[in-house]
Amino acid sequence: MNIAEIVSDLKTEKNRLDKAIAALEGLSSNRSASTTRHRAVARTQKRGGLTAAGRRRLSELMKKRWAERRKKASAKK
């Protein structure tokens, strides 16, 4: 089997799957709208876990960590 045949078979399979997905989405169109809204609300509530002070502290810790790594790397040379 050559590469062109493989690609052709994969494209055919992809088209078949796309049609199946579209059919399933059409069946559950009423449910998906409410589910999408619910997911969007849940996603926005979980964002922004760090405060400005927490970001600053994390930044300082990472700068310190990378400075130590650079220091160790230069000592090995």
Molecular structure report:
- With 77 residues, this protein is mainly alpha-helical.
- The protein folds into 2 domains: 1-46; 50-77.
- The protein has helices spanning 3-27, 29-46, 52-76.
- The mean pLDDT is 82.
Helices and strands, in order, run as HHH
Going by helix content, strand content and strand pairing, the class is mainly alpha
Tell me about the largest β-sheet: none
Beta strand count:
0
Rg measurement, Å: 26 Å
* Ends distance: 53 Å
The domain tally reads 2
Q: What is the topology?
A:
Blueprint: H1 3-27, H2 29-46, H3 52-76
Summarize the entry for a quick read:
The chain has 77 residues and is an all-alpha fold. It has helices spanning 3-27, 29-46, 52-76. The chain is built from three helices and no strands.
Annotation keywords:
0% strand; 3 helices; 88% helix; 2 domains; 77 residues; mainly alpha
